[in-house]
Structure formats: C-alpha cells, structure tokens
C-alpha cells in the first residue's frame, strides 16, 4: 500500500455511509466506486487543494454518494462502458459510468443476486452506439443465494411480459443443508436431498 485513506465520514457526504461490500475501478478514468450494504454507491476521486493541484494528488477521497438499490449491493462489475450491479432485493441494474440508469431487470424472481458474469462478445461495443439500438450488452448469467443460476439477455429489457423478463433457469442447486446422498448402483449418477425439500438426480 502506498497510503491509507480513512473511511468516508458522514459529514463529508451529508449522510451515513453503510459497510462497503465491493469496490472496483472505472476504466478510462482515475475514479473508483464502492458499493454498500445500504444500497448506495460511493464514488472516489482525486480532490485538488490550493496547495496541491489534482495532477499531483494520489489519494482518492469520497466525492459522491448515490442510491442505486433498495437493499445491499452484493456484486458489481464493469462491461464496456457500463456498470452493472446486483442487489439483495434480487434486481440487476445497469448504469453508465456517471451513474445514470440504462436498464433494470427486476422480474428475475431468483433471490438475492450474489454474482454476475458476462459472455465474451467484443463486437457489442465495437461500433458507435445507436439511439435506436436499445440496450447493448452481452448475454449474462446471474447467481443467487437461493442456489440458482439464471441466463439473461439484453433483449429481455424490451419485453413487456413479466414472464419473458425472468430469464432462463440453468441450474437449481440445494439452497439448504444437504442431508442425503446416494449413488446409482450401475449408472454414473447420484441423488441428493436437502433440508429445503429438494430431491435432485445428477449425472
């Protein structure tokens, strides 16, 4: 560590700041952003003073607090020119780097979001954006604390039906303690049962 910056004080941002859950740099800038357990984002940047111009400042300080979710933000990632967040209320939201909301996926109905991963598709951001193009981002999957993995596409945002905006369930795991395993006597398969009441057959 080159230096240490103390936690953001409530007086600087005019309100209390919750526990930080994740932090990442915003590409193409000298700024970083942290997510909190209160659903806020804290933007960090260089702050110039009379004694020290911005180009000579190395320490980043909290400069902005923005509400992004109504519950804890449990994961965040950057894809191209977009910031994508997943919240404990089960919503995925997509923002520009200046925190303007671009799209939201609130009908997934899969539980608190714990991780988001995007497909590799460099052509998505290769051409200039077109206003009539709609949301431009690769397909992605989300993991949840209910042991679900759900596949999503950008086109889901344009759907009117809540069912069409739920994505495709890829994996349903045990979301409670596993209490029984049994191997098939002849086939390469086994069954598992859990306290959630779920019986699964795996191959």
Automatic annotation (TrEMBL):
WD repeats lie at residues 171-203. Keywords: Cell projection, Repeat, WD repeat. It is found in: Cell projection, Cilium. Gene3D superfamilies: YVTN repeat-like/Quinoprotein amine dehydrogenase (2.130.10.10). This is Cilia- and flagella-associated protein 251. It comes from Strombidinopsis acuminata. PROSITE patterns: WD_REPEATS_2, WD_REPEATS_REGION. The lineage of its organism: Eukaryota, Sar, Alveolata, Ciliophora, Intramacronucleata. It comes from the Eukaryota. GO terms for cellular component: motile cilium. InterPro entries: WD40/YVTN_repeat-like_dom_sf (IPR015943), WD40_repeat_dom_sf (IPR036322), WD40_rpt (IPR001680), WD_repeat_EMAP (IPR050630). Its main location: other.
């Amino acid at each position: 560590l080159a230096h240490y910056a103390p936690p953001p004080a409530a007086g600087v941002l005019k309100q209390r700041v919750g526990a930080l859950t994740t932090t990442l740099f915003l590409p193409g800038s000298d700024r970083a952003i942290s997510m909190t357990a209160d659903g806020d984002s804290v933007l960090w940047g260089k702050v110039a003073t009379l004694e020290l111009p911005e180009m000579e400042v190395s320490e980043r300080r909290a400069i902005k607090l923005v509400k992004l979710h109504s519950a804890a933000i449990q994961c965040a990632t950057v894809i191209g020119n977009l910031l994508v967040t997943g919240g404990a209320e089960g919503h995925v939201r997509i923002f520009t780097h200046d925190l303007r909301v671009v799209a939201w996926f609130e009908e997934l109905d899969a539980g608190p979001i714990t991780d988001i991963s995007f497909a590799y598709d460099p052509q998505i951001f290769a051409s200039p954006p077109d206003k009539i193009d709609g949301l431009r981002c690769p397909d992605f999957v989300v993991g949840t604390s209910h042991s679900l993995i759900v596949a999503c596409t950008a086109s889901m945002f344009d759907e009117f039906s809540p069912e069409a905006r739920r994505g495709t369930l890829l994996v349903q795991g045990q979301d409670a303690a596993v209490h029984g395993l049994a191997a098939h006597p002849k086939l390469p398969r086994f069954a598992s049962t859990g306290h959630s009441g779920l019986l699964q057959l795996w191959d």
